[in-house]
Amino acid sequence: EIVLTQSPATLSLSPGERATLSCRASQSVSSYLAWYQQKPGQAPRLLIYDASNRATGIPARFSGSGSGTDFTLTISSLEPEDFAVYYCQQRSSWVTFGQGTRLEIK
Amino acid sequence: QVHLQESGPGLVKPSQTLSLTCTVSGDSITSGSYLWTWIRQHPGKGLEWIGYISSTGSTYYDPSLKSQFAISVDTSKNQFSLKLSSVTAADTAVYYCTRVRHTSVGGGFDYWGQGTLVTVSS
Q1: Calpha distance A104→B11 (Å, rounded)
Q2: One digit per residue, pLDDT tens: chain B, 122 residues?
Q3: Whole-angstrom Cα distance, residue B41 to residue B47?
Q4: How near does any CA of chain B get to the CA of A10, in Å?
Q5: Cβ-proximal residues to B55 (8 Å cutoff; 6+ apart), any chain
Q6: What's the CA gap between B46 and B37, in Å, rounded?
Q7: Cα–chain-centroid distance for residue A95?
Q8: Which of A87, A91, A93 to mutate against chain B (most B CBs within 10 Å)?
Q9: B38 strand-pairing partners
Q10: E strands within chain A?
Q11: pLDDT tier at A10 (50, 70, 90 boundaries)?
């Protein structure tokens, strides 16, 4: 099983700041990595697929990078609606999710 | 616009079988382009992939989970279903249905149902 480890567990930032979230895979997943945003009481929303492709309707402030085992989700300038939990997910070998990063308002 | 909607009982007794259905609109399950998926989330926890099914009925399950899950598809109703036998309190979770492209290893789960909370309790 490919284990995805996200860091940090919690990130405290202010609106307007830049957020950098990390996801590390226990073995290479090539570029088959996706990122999701989840708000309380809601289903996850796909943000990024194949490491760096924005899903339909996702604002340009969200970007993804990386390949192999190390991946990053960057939010260039935080909006109030961006404070949520973020998950990474791979489908290179079965499907696994990271444990999540909580992005909270400082 | 693609829409997925879960349905099923919100409360199930221990040792019974849980049955959930996902109704898909705005896309045809028979298109063959997607794998129709169940994911669950225990209260306050992360996301756990259960498995998925193709339009032809091929199923794939998380090998780390016990084999009490069964996913099936009803193409005539454009629905797919999840059965979980011998439930315990550990199966209390929000269950989501979603889809992912079948035509490549990549992509992501792009459309989701709103989720249904299943509580296992006597």
Answers
A1: 33
A2: 999 999 999 999 999 999 999 999 999 999 888 999 999 999 999 999 999 999 889 999 998 886 789 999 999 999 999 999 999 999 999 999 999 998 777 889 999 999 999 999 99
A3: 5
A4: 14
A5: B29, B30, B31, B32, B34, B36, B73, B75
A6: 16
A7: 15
A8: A91
A9: B51, B97
A10: 4-7, 10-13, 19-25, 33-38, 45-49, 53-54, 62-67, 70-75, 85-90, 96-97, 101-105
A11: very high
Q: What mean pLDDT is reported for chain A? A: 97
Task: Determine the residue among A49, A54, A92 to mutate to test chain B binding: the one whose Cβ has the most chain B Cβ atoms within 10 Å.
Answer: A49
Q: Which of A48, A91, A94 sits opposite B62 (nearest CB)?
A: A94
Q: What average pLDDT does the segment A27-52 reach?
A: 97
Q: How far apart are CA A55 and CA A46, in angstroms?
A: 6
Q: Is the dihedral of CA A23, A28, A31, A37 positive or negative?
A: negative
Instruction: Report cis status (omega within 30 of 0) of the bond before A8.
Output: yes
A50 contact B CB<8A: yes
pLDDT of residue B65: 82
**What proportions of chain B, in percent to the nearest 5, are helix, strand and coil?**
5, 50, 45
* Chain B residues touching residue A91 (CB < 8 angstroms): 100, 105-107
Report the residue of chain A nearest B46, measured CA to CA. Answer: A99
Query: Would you call B110 and A46 a contact, using CB atoms and an 8 Å cutoff?
Result: yes
Sequence length of chain A is 106
Closest by Cα among B3, B19, B37 to B118: B19
